[in-house]
Design goal:
Chain A: One of its GO terms (biological process) is auxin-activated signaling pathway. The complex is a heterodimer. By secondary structure, chain A is an alpha/beta fold. Among the domains of chain A are: about 10-80, no CATH class; about 420-540, Ribonuclease Inhibitor (Leucine-rich repeat, LRR (right-handed beta-alpha superhelix)), CATH 3.80.10; about 555-610, no CATH class. The two termini of chain A are about 25 Å apart. By secondary structure, chain B is an alpha+beta fold. Chain B is built from eight helices and five strands. Classes of the chains: A alpha/beta, B alpha+beta.
């Protein structure tokens, strides 16, 4: 049981290695004499329960649960929100036995690098055993958030049947289900407030799930289905929106054209978040055709703060959004291939913008315009239109520099480019001291500073040194071990680090593993780090959520040694493609994570657990 | 700024650069493409010791790109792809006219990967020489210049915008006589 307590604690510097038995310290009130009767215990427990109810942060709760047995028990009974960062770190049974009154669960499955086809799709992270266990024990469940899980239609059906109070379903980057599963949720979850589907891979079973919502007024507040790439019955959607007075967030898929969008908007002027679907008409509109007054429709949405969508944009219609620009805090143009000329008239109204996602089609010039207007910008993401190594990318160090000079409050950046300089990155490190997330992807592998031809070490070094709040870092370009020495030296708060095609030797990885005490998630690909480097992290792996290393210099023996030294670590070696037999020594991916459960029973053939 | 056409020409010959290898940094022939003399070679050489022999057993996949790089999710890539293919249903056919030719042709833009591809095909189809594009001069010096009408109805010189942008905005093509095209070429 003491091991449970140590393992369940997420992050935090306090987590001990599971082998150390934590004796319950705490006030053993009844141990003294007969004077303190059991009722005093009960009073204390009651007080504790009531106080603990106010504790919402899971880190605080983890700490509280380590105080004593009674605190552990009280905390377990009062925890309502459960966060499980790795679905294989703990079993459904163990979780449901410890925490009895859970109302909200967040569950994460596959590692992030799996998104990039680095391992076969059937790796695992099945939702089925979880929904079965929770259906049994958590009848009062209201909220569920899943990320990178394999969710089947049957699972959704079981979910819909098992939880009468179910209110919020959020699925991010999940797959395995289709419109039939959605239909189950729509029809059976009568109290549904939130149905958010983001970047899921949804199978088109040709079931009209929108029509499956029950008749009469719904409690829907959020309906996000832009990733559901299936035809929908527009009339059914229109009626649904009409009878959902609480609807605040609506994100449509690309099968809704702008004329249909108009009809929805006039039914729901109370929207705060809108995803426009395809921002073009269904057929060619000739000059002089009578078109709806899109500008008025947008103007009527006085509460609109977040705009996204614009799939298949016909830029002629962009001016329709001018009325809402001044209020926007979040704008997502990352599916809209628009130029600087098209962006500028929009962005110069967006004084309150905090979050902006764009494609690099807006060029450095567009980013200049952003920097000039969006002084409150906190998060910027620039995605590539042409996601190839040797493609053209019209954004560069110039755009990055402009942003750094204009947007001093920047906290989070994701920037894809082909050309970068250390100078621009260093400038950003100084101009934007609040940066928490810095992810720079120079798309050509091993690309140096394009002006000085030097490695990008100094740029990234400046980021870790000057951005004192940095917790997440993704590096790219030509990098030597020196870059990693900087990260180890200065990146004391770094929790997530992503590395690709970087470093010279084992020293690179050693610097990081020895220097970054808060490191939780480390994902590395195609870098020359070997067994000796892997070994240098032994003191830290129990504190981490996972380590991913693919196409590095590891050997099976080296990984096996880790598995032997750390019994509570699950060490998976994975083949990159399903057809290949697991050869003796060769593997593509090492994925290892701490777990209370030992090797999982559902590992497919291409996975070997050492 | 390098134009796509010029870089494509060198790609055509430099097959090694597009070969997928699981070799480690420093053994990557793509490095040789860039100016290698200024970089800190010593640091790079240190990792070009034995290629991991085990990794070499793997045959590189057929594609010329590395798996999963750059790290953009397929979902996002597919969304941008969709727009292209949806434009005309199953293809992106545009009419092509050439000054002096008796009748028009139609081509499917989706079939081509780059400007170089397209221009080669046009030259073949119409038995003409189009020449080399430069940002400054356009197609100056050649017999013909390829132009296109974009979504806004303007006539543009082929080659100015990134390929992807061109493909989504091109409505029809016209191969103009060199003398007439001069007006477009120099601004």
């Amino acid at each position: 049981m003491s091991e449970d307590r140590a393992e369940m604690s997420e992050d935090g510097g306090e987590s001990s290695s599971p082998s150390s038995a934590t004796k319950p310290r705490g006030c053993d009130v009844s141990g003294g004499g007969d004077y303190l009767s059991p009722s005093a215990d009960q009073v204390l427990d009651n007080v504790l329960d009531n106080v603990l109810l106010f504790l919402t942060s899971r880190r605080d709760r983890n700490a509280a649960s380590l105080v004593s047995k009674s605190w552990w028990r009280a905390e377990a009974l009062t925890r309502e929100e459960l966060f499980i960062g790795n679905c294989y770190a703990v079993s459904p049974r163990r979780v449901t036995e410890r925490f009895r009154r859970v109302r909200a669960v967040t569950l994460k499955g596959k590692p992030r690098f799996a998104d990039f086809n680095l391992m076969p799709p059937n790796w695992g992270a099945h939702f089925a055993p979880w929904v079965a266990a929770m259906g049994h024990r958590y009848r009062a469940l209201e909220k569920l958030c899943l990320k990178r899980m394999r969710v089947k239609d049957e699972d959704l059906e079981l979910l819909a049947r098992s939880f009468p109070c179910f209110k919020e379903l959020v699925l991010v980057c999940c797959d395995g289900f289709g419109t039939s599963g959605l239909a189950m949720v729509a029809s059976k979850c009568r109290q549904l407030r939130v149905l958010d589907l983001t970047e899921d891979d949804v199978i088109d079973d040709e079931v009209d799930w929108i029509s499956c919502f029950p008749e009469g007024e719904t409690s829907l507040e959020s309906l996000i289905f832009d990733c559901v790439d299936c035809l929908i019955d527009f009339e059914a959607l229109e009626q649904l929106v009409t009878r959902s007075p609480s609807l605040k967030k609506l994100r449509l898929n690309r099968y809704v054209n702008i004329g249909q969008l108009y009809r929805l908007m006039i039914q729901a002027p109370q929207l705060t978040h809108l995803g426009t679907g395809s921002f073009s008409p269904s057929e060619i509109v000739a000059q002089g055709d009578q078109e709806p007054d899109y500008v008025s429709a947008f103007a009527a949405c006085r509460s609109l703060v977040c705009l996204s969508g614009f799939r298949e944009i016909t830029s002629d219609y962009l001016p329709a959004i001018y009325p809402v620009c001044a209020n926007l805090t979040s704008l997502n143009f990352s599916y809209a291939n628009i130029s600087a000329e098209q962006l500028i008239p929009v962005i110069r109204h967006c004084h309150k913008l905090q979050i902006l996602w764009v494609l690099d089609s807006v060029c450095d010039e567009g980013l200049h315009a952003v920097a000039a207007t969006c002084k409150d910008l906190r998060e910027l993401r620039v995605f590539p239109v042409d996601a190839r190594e040797d493609g053209e990318a019209p954004v560069s160090d110039v755009g990055l520099l402009a942003i750094s000079e204009g947007c001093s409050k920047l906290q989070s950046i994701l920037y894809f480019c082909q050309r970068m300089t250390n100078a621009a990155v260093i400038a950003m490190s100084k101009n934007c001291p609040d940066i928490v997330v810095f992810r720079l992807c120079i798309m050509g592998r091993h690309q140096p500073d394009h002006i000085t031809d030097e490695p990008m070490d100094e740029g990234f070094g400046a980021i870790v040194k000057n951005c004192k709040k940095l917790t997440r870092l993704a590096v790219s370009g030509l990098l030597t071990d020196r870059a990693f020495s900087y990260i180890g030296q200065y990146g004391k708060l770094v929790r997530t680090l992503s590395v690709a095609f970087a470093g010279n030797s084992d020293m690179g990885l050693k610097y990081v593993l020895e220097g970054c005490p808060r490191l939780q998630k480390l994902e590395i690909r195609d870098s020359p780090f070997g067994d000796s480097a892997l070994h240098s992290g032994l003191h830290h792996y129990y504190n981490m959520r996972f380590l991913w290393m693919s196409s590095c210099k590891l050997t099976r023996q080296g990984c096996k040694e880790i598995a032997q030294r750390l019994p509570r670590l699950v060490v998976e070696v994975i083949n990159g493609s399903e057809e290949d037999e697991m050869e003796d020594d060769f593997f593509d991916v090492l994925y290892m994570y701490r777990s209370l459960e030992g090797p999982r029973a559902d590992a497919p053939r291409f996975v070997t657990i050492l | 700024m390098e134009t796509q056409i010029m870089s494509c020409e060198s790609d055509d010959l430099n097959l090694k650069a597009t070969e997928l290898r699981l070799g480690l940094p420093g053994t990557d022939p793509a490095l040789e493409k860039q100016s290698s003399n200024k970089r800190a070679l010593s640091e790079i050489d240190s990792c070009s010791d034995a290629k991991n022999g085990e990794q070499d057993r793997r045959a590189p996949p057929a594609k010329g790109q590395v798996v999963g790089w750059p790290p953009v999710r397929s979902y996002r890539k597919n969304c941008l792809q969709q727009k292209k293919s949806e434009t005309d249903g199953s293809g992106m056919y545009v009419k092509v006219s050439m000054d002096g030719a008796p009748y028009l042709r139609k081509i499917d833009l989706k079939v081509y990967q780059s400007y170089l591809d397209l221009l080669k095909a046009l030259q073949n189809m119409f038995k003409c020489t189009i020449g080399v594009y430069t940002e400054r001069e356009g197609y100056n010096g050649s017999d013909y210049a390829p132009t296109y009408e974009d979504k806004e109805g303007d006539w543009m010189l082929v080659g100015d915008v990134p390929w992807e942008m061109f493909v989504t905005s091109c409505k029809r093509l016209r191969i103009m006589k060199g003398s007439e095209a001069k007006g477009l070429g120099c601004l």
